Structure to design on (184 residues):
C-alpha cells in the first residue's frame, strides 16, 4: 500500500530542513576598518618615478597611470601601465587585509617578470603609510632571493609617495625606486 503525502506538508518540511542547514552556516565576513583604509587608493592616478637597476647605473625615468578600484569592500585592484625608459609595462596589484593575521596582504604581477610577488605588511602609527614586505628574485645575484619593501605614503588624499627598497647583505634597506602618484 502506497501512502500519498500532501505536497504542502512536503514543502513545509523541506523549508524547515533548509532553514536549519542555513542557520548552521557561518556568516559572511564584513569589511573591517582596515579594509576601509585601502579605499584611499581608488581612483585614477598619474605616476612618475625614478628607478635604479644597479648602484653604478644612472636613474631611469618612469611614467604612467594607475587605475584603482574596490572589490567588494575587502580588496583594491591597482592596475598600472607605463614605461621605463621607453619600455612599456603593465602590472596588477591586489591589496587587502587579513583580520586573522592582523596584516595587510596582497600580490603583484607585471609584464616584465615571471614572479608572483606576495605581500604582507602594516600601516604605520600615523595611519598614512602602508609598508609591504615580499620576497623575490635578487636583482644583483642571479638565482638568489632577496627581501623587498614597497611603501605607499598618503601625503594628502590626492598624492601618494611610493618607495621600493631591497634589503642588502648587511640587513639595510636600499631604495631603488621612488616616485609620486597624483590623482587625476
Amino acid at each position: 500500500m502506497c501512502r500519498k503525502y500532501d505536497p504542502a506538508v512536503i514543502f513545509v518540511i523541506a523549508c524547515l530542513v533548509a532553514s536549519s542547514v542555513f542557520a548552521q552556516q557561518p556568516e559572511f565576513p564584513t569589511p573591517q576598518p582596515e579594509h576601509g583604509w585601502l579605499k584611499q587608493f581608488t581612483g585614477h592616478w598619474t605616476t612618475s618615478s625614478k628607478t635604479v637597476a644597479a648602484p653604478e647605473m644612472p636613474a631611469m625615468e618612469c611614467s604612467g597611470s594607475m587605475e584603482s578600484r574596490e572589490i567588494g569592500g575587502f580588496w583594491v585592484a591597482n592596475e598600472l601601465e607605463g614605461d621605463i625608459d621607453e619600455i612599456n609595462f603593465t602590472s596588477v596589484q591586489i591589496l587587502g587585509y587579513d583580520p586573522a593575521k592582523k596584516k595587510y596582504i596582497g600580490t603583484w604581477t607585471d609584464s616584465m617578470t615571471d614572479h608572483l610577488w606576495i605581500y604582507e605588511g602594516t600601516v604605520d602609527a600615523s595611519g598614512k603609510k602602508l609598508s609591504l614586505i615580499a620576497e623575490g628574485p635578487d636583482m644583483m645575484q642571479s638565482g638568489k632571493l632577496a627581501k623587498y619593501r614597497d611603501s605607499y605614503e598618503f601625503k594628502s588624499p590626492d598624492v601618494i609617495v611610493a618607495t621600493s627598497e631591497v634589503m642588502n647583505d648587511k640587513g639595510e634597506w636600499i631604495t631603488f625606486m621612488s616616485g609620486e602618484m597624483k590623482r587625476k
Remarks:
- The two ends are 77 Å apart (CA to CA).
- The mean pLDDT is 91.
